[in-house]
Amino acid sequence: MTIREVARLAEVHPGTVSRALNEQTRALVNQETAERVLRAAEELGYQPNPIARGLKTNRSYTVGVLIPDLTNPLFPPIMRGIEDRLGDAGYTLLIVNTDNDPERERSQMVAMRARQVDGFIAATARLDREVLAEAAAGGAPIVLVNRSLEDGSVAAVTVDDRHGIALAIDHVVGLGHTVVGHVAGPQNVSTGHRRYLGYLEAMARHELPAAAAQVTFADAFSEAAGARACRELIDRTDHVTAIVAANDRLAIGCYDALEELGLGCPQDISITGFNDMPFVDRLHPPLTTVRVPQREIGLVAAELLLKQLGDQDGIVGEVLLEPTLVIRQSTAPPER
Amino acid sequence: MTIREVARLAEVHPGTVSRALNEQTRALVNQETAERVLRAAEELGYQPNPIARGLKTNRSYTVGVLIPDLTNPLFPPIMRGIEDRLGDAGYTLLIVNTDNDPERERSQMVAMRARQVDGFIAATARLDREVLAEAAAGGAPIVLVNRSLEDGSVAAVTVDDRHGIALAIDHVVGLGHTVVGHVAGPQNVSTGHRRYLGYLEAMARHELPAAAAQVTFADAFSEAAGARACRELIDRTDHVTAIVAANDRLAIGCYDALEELGLGCPQDISITGFNDMPFVDRLHPPLTTVRVPQREIGLVAAELLLKQLGDQDGIVGEVLLEPTLVIRQSTAPPER
DNA sequence: CTGTTAGCGCATTCAT
DNA sequence: ATGAATGCGCTAACAG
Description:
2 copies of one chain form a homodimer. By secondary structure, chain A is an alpha/beta fold. Helices cover 45% and strands 16% of the residues of chain A. Chain A is built from 12 helices and 12 strands. In chain A, helix 11 links the parallel strand 8 (242-245) and strand 9 (270-275). Chain A is elongated and about 90 Å long. The A-B interface holds A 47-52, 54-55, 60, 69-71, 73, 76-77, 79-80, 83, 87, 92-97, 110-116, 252, 278-279, 282-284 and B 47-52, 54-55, 60, 69-71, 73, 76-77, 79-80, 83, 87, 92-97, 110-116, 252, 278-279, 282-284. Chain A binds a DNA duplex through residues 2-4, 12-16, 18-19, 22, 25, 28-30, 33, 48-49, 51-58.
């Protein structure tokens, strides 16, 4: 089914068919001619060939999405948000997993640019400025998800990590805890770093001590790393009664460490997570955690990208989404 | 960067560049000319434009993947398997969620065909023959995942549901259970139906009763539906000591129902699931379940598709992957 | 308002 | 072994 067959049936020139079929240019063509063309196209089940169109217009109506790992339950809802919004706008997604490997990120981006993607949404933790600049130089708009550049030169949508941690700390402090530890994430990942800063900030606001001994750093956002960091924390300061973990997986690691040490949660130590992953409401005890609006992150990221795709120079800067606290049973007042 | 710029630098005709750059046709060109072209391309950082190539060759090196819902933890590992294999082969994925809506499936498939995808991998539960036939008529190979057509006319990779259920039943029967119930999934979904058949089969093999009262049907693969079905089952036959659920989410629903009824698992009733979703090892009790090799499913599906993409007529028929039983603590011998 | 023409970047046929 | 020419399906600039 080509445009020419439609033209033959409608008895007009192919160029006219193109104009009639295109929203933008429909105005240029006579009302009833347009209708005739539309009917002909309908009848033949004509579908424009986006490949051919892209060759001419340099637009593929395709956007590249880079994520570290689809298998991480954090990402699918974000992807759904992106797809829902971008799909409505007629875009198709090319999704690739990078496993946070910089080389892979690079090569995937190059490959996608070759495929003429109109823009990128990148959820990868680190993506060096160089790669970003390179992509931007190619004229492709980029929206960052879950991270941002300090200078705000690239559009980004993130959740307010500091506020999220503050919610958790306000909660445990409100419960009566005064010695609150932090199992921090990797500091070279922006979420890890920001949550750590949020911890320091909130503790200071409450005029509570946040000594170095009260914080341990996990070298990855994994259960095992969380367990290690938690053991280390308890080793160092045995009077901690609450631990704010930088994410749910670290919190689960804390559960493991407590169990190993024969400590109970929340009787001996309260624990909070971050993300509200699926099924953390079914852990024992159900995890008190900071919920991030994942689907909305995707929606907003898509929206920002569409803006940039439309206007020549869209919005840059960062959109901060507000997290909320979900109180379950891993937190309780400290025992006297 | 076009082929012409490379041609200019290498001082040859664009046609020659095309030949030199293409594995298939490299033989047609002089050894050292080819090298010169390759070097020029390298130097300019030339990337062939797949859009233009696709227009000419009618191949996009793109495959469409239809899944019900990326948010279902079952799918991401499958997707990774598909991506890993197909990515190596130079293909890019267009992934769409259909939410099991037939109309959406249809429209997405049409849209993807318009985008000239070279083939499809479909993991959607139902996909009427009509849509399949339509796509096949367009000449695009299709591989089904997690379902198959009775007549084997379409390539499919599925896990051996009947054997999986048999593993679960052999296990609980081995533990000493004789009254084993089944919380079945929706019967209009092939996995739901096959697992039900597997239950009947295995019970018969053990010469154990499998009365209608021992089976209830959930109307969806959800926790709520599982809980409903489980309550109904226990209402009807209060002497059941083990329940084999058609998947993990139904099993979790069973947990909920037992808790509500004040029954303990596994003391009062043993429960098994199917899929081995993430975190079911952290439920209370950790769930005994049938593990399906999800990533491998993706890998094999990709492999089958590549076969069809290569040869003109590849393999059809069904590949059955073997599940394994993961024994945890939701199953125990019945109390006397 | 519509027909005509050219060309996007590439692969491929036909000459040479 | 390479150059020249053609066309994939479409849009856009230009005529009329």
